[in-house]
Amino acid sequence: MAALCRGKHRWKTNCYFKVLTRTLSGKYNYDLIVIGGGSGGLACSKEAAQLGQKVAVLDYVEPSALGTKWGLGGTCVNVGCIPKKLMHQAALLGTAVKDAKKFGWQIPAVISHDWSLMAGAVQNYVKSLNWGHRVQLNDKKVKYLNIKGSLVDEHTVKGLSKAGKETTLTAKNIVIATGGRPKYPTNIPGAMEHGITSDDIFWLKKSPGKTLVVGASYVGLECAGFLTGIGLDATIMVRSIALRGFDQQVAGLVTDYMEAYGTKFVWECVPRRVDKLPSGGLRVTWTDARTGSEHQDTYDTVLWAVGRAPETKALGLDKLGVQLNKETGKIIVGADESTSVPNIYAFGDIGEGRPELTPTAIQAGRLLARRLAGKTSQLMNYDNVPTTVFTPLEFGCVGLSEEDAEKRHGYDGIEVYHAFYKPLEFTVAERDASQCYLKVICERGKNQKIVGLHFTGPNAGEVTQGFALGLQCGATYSDLLNTVGIHPTCAEEVTKVHITKRSGLDATVTGC
User: What is the DSSP secondary-structure string of 249-265?
Assistant: First the structure.
């Protein structure tokens, strides 16, 4: 037994007795320990408990650089999807008020938005979700521990409480679902001292005021979009392109709409430093990559949206030999979410090559729990996962972008059907619909299987969700044409699309 403690894991001396006890008894404290109380971790733990497993969930939130912290539920519930969508809705309501005048509503000449009232309502709702998750875990007999977990070996987890108290737990299997956190740039003076991230924006008590958003990821665009929508001065600084990884034609339409909507863009520029002025404002200095010239402006808030980093550093993975991608820091996982160490699994945002999407993590977590309980061998299908960017003009997509489809099948191997349409809601309101667009990408040939679908317009998420089922079932272009649309809706335009890009014909919809 002593030889085990000197093996590849470099065990400490006192581990001998823990290993001996566990080996002789063949028992653990739990069947499953899940490290991470986000959407995926909670789904995995509850599913396992439903299947008769004894389960514990460890969740601990390190405060952001600004000091923001939150409760159980992970990024989506606290600083992601939920508060983002609610603030996006606040912005949409502001646009609806403007439209309402055209529809006969008598609106006062001056309307204003109260940040603190909105933020308070959103934060109270999030807190209710935190409590709800705790109740659900309790109801399903899942042990919830508000401690920071790290791995000792493939069956042992050490937990550290806020007060510094250590707890040792053992389990047959350990699942890592710790997700990620926003990154700060490390080479820009004043970035962390004076900036915030998406971990903070939703929990601000006071309005962020004039805001510079650095980064044009979906996080950056969504935040700048709802800030503009509630009447604030918002600027996005873009180093290269917007919405990297998404269809770039559609990404261009989204940013064009945002510029017309009032969001400012500073293209191909790189921030150099952030200085706090005696007045309390933030002076940002940046360089134009095209000309090399230097510029400055003053803002109330600087929001960094320059990517996310996986929460792996404090887990002790290197000591166990859990293989990581050295560039991204993410855990390399197999199709069954297994890591390089037996009995340790990982899924969600922390897994290399996995979509950073809440519903994906939830589904993957549930399936993993079922496999570990011996109830199924079904693996998670990561193909044709739909998503939506909740910018002022929403952008929903599923399947391949046009760029990726062309890489995979060749230019002559795909057919792209597309249309510019005008939502009925935009007509009386006299809103510009120049960027309302859809494209359906098909394999070129006899069956014309659909491999990608992209849609910008109102309720893009609701539209895309239904068509995602079609792609999952292998729908073809003829299936689409044989689908009767619901009139008058934006979604029906997808079922009528017939102009190909290859034809060069005008793709503007001109009638019902």
Answer: HHHHHHHHHHHHHT-EE
In a domain, 272, yes or no: yes
Domain span at residue 364 reads 2-60+146-181+309-372
Please check whether residue 386 is in contact with residue 463, taking contact to mean a CB–CB distance below 8 angstroms: no
DSSP-based three-state secondary structure for 344: strand
Query: d(Cα 86, Cα 77) in Å, to the nearest integer?
Result: 11
Residue 382 within any structural domain of the chain:
no
The Cα-based distances of 373 to 27, 154, 173, 368, 380 in angstroms read 16, 18, 10, 9, 16
pTM (predicted TM-score): 0.93
As given in the structure block, the two tokens for residue 334 are 């197999």
Per-residue pLDDT tens over the stretch 218-230 = 999 999 999 999 9
- Comparing C-alpha atoms, which of 405, 399, 398 is closest to residue 444? 405
Given 9, 155, 418, 487, the catalytic residue: 487
**Together in a domain, 405 and 284:** no
Say yes or no: 328 and 442 in one domain.
Answer: no
The beta strand positions in 123-268, using DSSP E, are 143-145, 148-153, 156-160, 166-176, 180-182, 211-214, 234-238, 264-267
Active site residue 454: no
Instruction: Give one DSSP letter per residue of 448-472, joined into a string.
Output: -BEEEEEEESTTHHHHHHHHHHHHH
What amino acid is encoded at 212 in this protein?
A: L
Using one digit for the tens of pLDDT, what is the confidence trace for 275-297? Answer: 999 999 999 999 999 999 999 99
108 versus 196: the higher-pLDDT residue is 196
Q: What is the pLDDT of residues 462-485, one digit of tens each?
A: 999 999 999 999 999 999 999 999
E-strand ranges in 46-155 read 55-58, 143-145, 148-153
Place of tokens 């791995």: 151
The reply to whether 136 falls in a domain is no
